[in-house]
Amino acid sequence: MQKILRRLFSAIAVTFSLFATSAFAQVVNYTDLWWNPNESGWGIQVTHHNDEIFGTWFTYDEQGNQLFIVLPGCNIQRYTDATKICRGDLYRTTGSPFNVPFVSANTAASLIGQATLTFTSNTTATFAYQIGATTIIKSISRQQFGTGTGLFPFDNSDLYFRASESGWGFSLAQHGAAMFGVIYHYDTNGRPMFVTLPAATLVGNSATGLIYRTRSNGNSHYLTPTWRATDISVTNSGGSGNATVSITPSGMSLNFTLDGFNQVKELTRQPFGTTTPANAFPPVAIVEKLCVAPRALARYGDKLGTNDQEKFWVRSYIDETYLWYDEVPNLSAANFTNANNYFASLKTSALTPSGRAKDQFHFIQDTTSYENQQSTGASFGFGFQLVALSTSPPRVYLAAQVQPNTSASQAGMQRGARILSVDGADLVNGNNIAALNAGLSPLNAGEVHTFSILEAGATTPRTVSLTSGSFISVPVQNVSTIETTSGRVGYLTFSNFNFPSEGQLIAAFNQLAAQNVSDLVVDLRYNAGGLIYISSEFAYMVAGAARTNGRVYSKLTFNDKRVADNNNPNNSVPFFNAASGAPNTGTVANQPLPSLNLGRVFVLTSNGTASASESFINGLEGIGVQVIRIGAQTTGKPYGFTPKDNCGTTYFSTEFKSANAVGFGDYADGFAPTCSAADDFTKQLGDPAEGRLAAALSYRLTGICPTPSIASINKTASLMGISSEVLMREPTLFRLPSETALIHLPHLFKK
User: Fold this and answer.
1) Please, which residues bridge with residue 554 across strands?
2) Dihedral over alpha carbons 68, 73, 79, 84 (to 10 degrees)
3) To 10 degrees, the CA torsion angle through 603, 606, 608, 610?
4) Where are the alpha helices (DSSP H) in 298-363?
5) Whole-angstrom distance, CA of residue 94 vs CA of residue 71
């Protein structure tokens, strides 16, 4: 069972979803172009507004001339649970020719019969009609073109008209970015005709294509029970003209030229039926992977779509999965330029008891960088992580961590190095914001930038040239044993619960177990989360089998729409006791994990300690393991998500809340430290004299939180060139947390 569950967990960041997205009840909408594929040449444009259908049937009369017949006001009724029907009258119209000013008063409608549409599924139906003594039944289905299906009312599929020119119209079916339009008008003799726009692609807000007339040889027409596609021909294979559809906030502008006569008409969606509910959204499944720029790799499954469809997907994704979906503001997609901007605003504005935003974890990441980061630990930059102790002049920016085998480490840069200038631009007091951001946030590999730095403890700056590029972060570092008068203490720095960390943690615990450590200090001050199954394994390796066997590590609660997920007995994470064997972990599946069998653990924390790191704290406390926190208040993220890719962006939206074995999960304001201790940038991580590690070692011996030495603080402040007040304030990391990290450092400075 653990092996099966871990396969599910291994793809999920921070905390996870065990299950596929639940199916949510959706009202089927039949708006689309319907036809019989064996009888090419005729069809029905079905426009479905909630409880009513307007059908426009394009066909041919007995002489083979074009003919359209309308089925207005066809009210839908349920026949069975799977079958819906509508019955209504059929009308034939005449009106003003297309090449003269249109006069609505010239339009005349004649009742010619009745019709019934019976929808046997979302994609199949029968069209039965009686005209005079003739009764005919046809099988029809949605016509396939482009990608996907129509998404009324969330795309441009609809029936359009001009209120001042009642009697003619334009129907549009949209599949992805492909559009199939039909102009219903009147020929030069005032008889009904139709012109098709069959192959237009929406680019931005407009689509252009050739328009065509067709006719029958008279052997196949609206009163013949049999139909031969060979009886239908295109009157002009090069097109009878062209048309451009431009989508506008109020509807569309239709610019078409037919037989040399040009018209530009402003059209609106024709109102009928009841209003679409404001909170109705298309199912995620039918709008996903419809992209403005589809990716070539087949594994992504992208298809050509539109900017609007990407935004529809975002809105539906939030409505279906977001934990606080009922607190999301009702914002129009039209007010946002793209899906990513739209997503950023689709979250709750509620606050925690302390007044902080309840949802601070709503973000996106480029899918390729996310996949690389999680699978291999790949990052981009120079190899250092910055911390800001003062963001206004005189600014203080220090290296909090330096990754091995990077440009920064090869230049000898170490934790605590203060950056004084970038490419000659003064970082401390200067205002050349563009140069500072360009140097600190390189966009391309191979960029060379020059930094003036002052190492911790040094009095003279030095200059280093760093080259940007990809590098592999090492999440588990500084594994060591510290000898004390009361036994050996193990220590490790842990910065990311990603796939490579699994094998590194196993190696670290094997090393510590072999050295018979009696206590453990885990440095999570810069660990913002990652994969929950690794967090569970990590907790097991601390606590051991006796304390964890049969216990729950984390229990998940989803929004109230996700009934199946909430009721599934497998939505609890156990304490995993064997390796996953997942790719890029360096592990063998089902290999037993080492453990230290400890009843307590010391954790070094900061305001960057979040998510899976906090789950580690909460999960252990839920089974009675004492977790002694040294440092600063953690982030406060008892929530999780399943990263979801769409069109090259991975979206992270809070989906569930987690709780430990005793049901506790209310730490939205973070875990307070057992002992407060400042981050000491004058020492390297793992140095027993470093402020937070020293405080942990002292508390372990005395059970009393040490008071920071004022002399020590002032000495550190003097070395850094800053005041003790600023130093004591918990610094802000200028790296987005590992779960939110972009491939480039964010711009640090703004005007």
Assistant:
1) 573
2) 60
3) 40
4) 307-321, 339-345
5) 15
Mean pLDDT of 236-248: 83
- Give yes or no for a contact between 180 and 210, defined as CB atoms under 8 angstroms apart: no
pLDDT band of 332, cuts 50, 70, 90: confident
The letter for the amino acid at 699 is: Y
Calpha distance 33→352 (Å, rounded): 50
User: What are residue 518's DSSP bridge partners?
Assistant: none
Taking each continuous run of H as one helix and of E as one strand, the counts in the chain are 15, 42
- Per residue in 121-179, pLDDT (tens digit) is 989 999 999 999 999 999 999 999 987 677 777 789 999 999 999 999 999 999 988 99
- The C-alpha torsion from 141 through 145 and 147 to 148, rounded to 10°, is -20
Give the pLDDT of residue 490. 98
Which among 477, 567, 582 has a CA at the least distance from the CA of 9? 582
DSSP string, 481-536: EEEETTEEEEEEEE--BSHHHHHHHHHHHHHHHHTT-SEEEEE-TT---BBHHHHH
How far is it, in rounded angstroms, from Cα 713 to Cα 602?
A: 23
Among 537, 547, 487, smallest CA distance to 517 is for 487
Backbone angles phi, psi at 376, to 5 degrees: -120, -10
CB 673 within 8 A of CB 605: yes
Tokens 């005041």 map to which residue?
Answer: 723
Strands 303-304 and 290-291: parallel
Residue 19 pLDDT > 90 = no
Rg (CA), the chain: 33
List pLDDT tens digits, range 452-463: 999 999 999 999
Task: Name the E strands within 11-165.
Answer: 32-35, 43-49, 52-60, 66-78, 84-94, 108-119, 124-131, 134-142, 158-161
Count of beta carbons in the 10 Å neighbourhood of residue 430: 16
Give the residue among 513, 656, 682, 688 at the shortest CA–CA distance from 595.
513
Distances (CA, A) of 584 to 579, 686, 738: 12, 26, 17
Q: Which amino acid is at 500?
A: P
pTM value is 0.66
What is the layout of strands, in order, in the sheet containing 178-186? 192-201, 178-186, 169-175, 158-161, 261-269, 251-258, 241-248, 206-211
CA dihedral over 300, 304, 309, 311, signed as positive or negative: positive
Alpha helices in 625-732 (DSSP H): 691-702, 710-720, 724-728
Closest to 675 measured CA to CA, from 710, 709, 706: 706
Class of residue 252 by CB neighbours under 10 A (exposed 0-12, middle 13-18, buried 19+): buried
Contacts of 201 (CB under 8 A, 6+ apart): 177, 178, 179, 207, 209, 304
Q: Buried (b) or exposed (e) across 120-159, using 16+ Cβ within 10 A?
A: beeeebebbbebeeeebebebebbeebbbbbbbbbbbbbb
pLDDT in tens, 664-677: 999 999 999 999 99
> Cα separation of 540 and 551, whole Å?
11
Q: What is the pLDDT of residue 330?
A: 86
CA distance 661 to 273: 52
